[in-house]
Write a structure and sequence with these properties.
nine-stranded parallel sheet, 13% strand, TIM Barrel, globular
Length: 361
């Protein structure tokens, strides 16, 4: 693998300079999005270890042709030393950042081998920013202090335009570094019952939560359009069939035309027993995906300018049964049978059922 040897040589020289995009750095022009995307999620740990090269190798030798890489995760940590002032001010880029030369080597190797680079940026689940800027956090009625979730973490208020701007600024930087698509996650209000029950939003001004999320997405779409890259959004899997916003501000008809790609997280393990008349959804991956996607496709057909649907599929075990080749392929088959060829697999540890991936022809 000459490409791997070359990458290792580049990495050995890394000195971890701050990431900047200026006169001495060549800005990478975004590459076109493949018509069909088969992707894998990549966490920051994988980017810091040889694991990333194994995942790039998978993308060269199997049907995988895209990697979704955490640029800002749900802890608020930024992948690299950022030139976005706010990221540096709050220390978001201080926790084991990926060295700049390593990041360049990974992205350039992906580019040279036709692997689509997607930057995942978490928007409102950012406890680091919420603690650093408590005025931007979700608060309880009659309190000026951040309202904490069950894990003791604060959330950002989805109304806050500075929060939107921060996500968009990071997106612009990521694209200049070599990413060709931006994926925004947690574009919603908190789903935890305590926060839904106790939170007060002074900036709501009579707007529904789904209207606020629509405005947030409109802003983000304008920013990504200005840098000529597709914008994807992650949404709850149940948004395909549930007709309310579920208290989180995600309602299909309110977001489907505000992105280029909508990615419902249709993980069978996340559906309660009896959903769609299926006794144990986790044990029936084909049936769950089939039903969920049929609803989303039908709703999309009624929306002018609706986004392309690219589902997230489950490649992890949560409860019974243990997920393996059969369960992963059944999800992919369900999408195929509904005319959806694109997909991305989720495994929080970035460890995948490789035998489920078809060999590249």
């Amino acid at each position: 693998m000459n490409w791997l040897v070359a990458a290792a040589v580049v990495l050995s020289a890394a000195k971890d300079p701050r990431v900047t995009v200026g006169a001495t750095d060549s800005v990478r022009t975004p590459l076109p999005r493949p018509d069909v995307v088969h992707g894998l999620y990549v966490n920051r740990w994988a980017m810091l270890t040889p694991r990333i090269w194994h995942l790039v190798h998978l993308a060269r030798t199997t049907e995988v042709n895209a990697l979704v890489i955490d640029v800002k995760d749900d802890r608020g940590l930024v992948l690299y030393r950022s030139s976005v002032p706010l990221a540096h001010q709050i220390g978001a880029d201080n926790s084991s950042p990926v060295p700049a030369l390593r990041l360049r080597a990974v992205l350039d190797t992906m580019r040279a081998n036709g692997v689509h680079a997607i930057a995942r940026i978490v928007v409102v689940k950012d406890p680091l920013l919420a603690r650093a800027r408590p005025a931007w956090s979700v608060k309880a009625r009659g309190s000026s202090k951040p309202l904490l979730d069950g894990k003791g973490a604060p959330w950002l208020d989805a109304h806050q335009r500075e929060v939107w701007k921060y996500a968009a600024d990071l997106a612009e930087e990521a694209v200049a570094l070599g990413f060709s698509e931006v994926q925004f996650d947690y574009v919603r209000f908190p789903d935890e019952p305590l926060l839904q029950r106790e939170a007060a939003y002074a900036q709501a001004q009579g707007r529904s939560r789904s209207q606020v999320i629509r405005e947030q997405l409109s802003y983000l779409r304008t920013r990504t359009d200005s840098i000529a890259v597709p914008m994807a959004i992650d949404v709850f899997g149940s948004t395909t069939s549930v007709t309310t916003d579920m208290g989180i501000g995600q309602k299909w008809e309110m977001f489907a035309d505000k992105a280029d790609v909508v990615m419902p997280m249709v993980y069978p393990s996340h559906y309660p027993r009896g959903t769609y008349g299926i006794p144990m959804p986790n044990a029936a991956p084909y049936a769950v995906i089939d039903r969920a996607l049929k609803y989303g496709i039908a709703r999309n057909a009624k929306i002018e300018g609706a986004a392309k649907i690219v589902p997230w599929y489950q490649d992890f075990t949560l409860g019974k049964p243990t997920y393996g080749v059969e369960q992963v392929r059944e999800q992919i088959r369900a999408g195929h049978d509904n005319g959806l060829e694109s997909w991305v697999l989720w495994n929080a540890s970035s460890r995948y059922t490789e035998a489920a991936l078809s060999t590249r022809k």
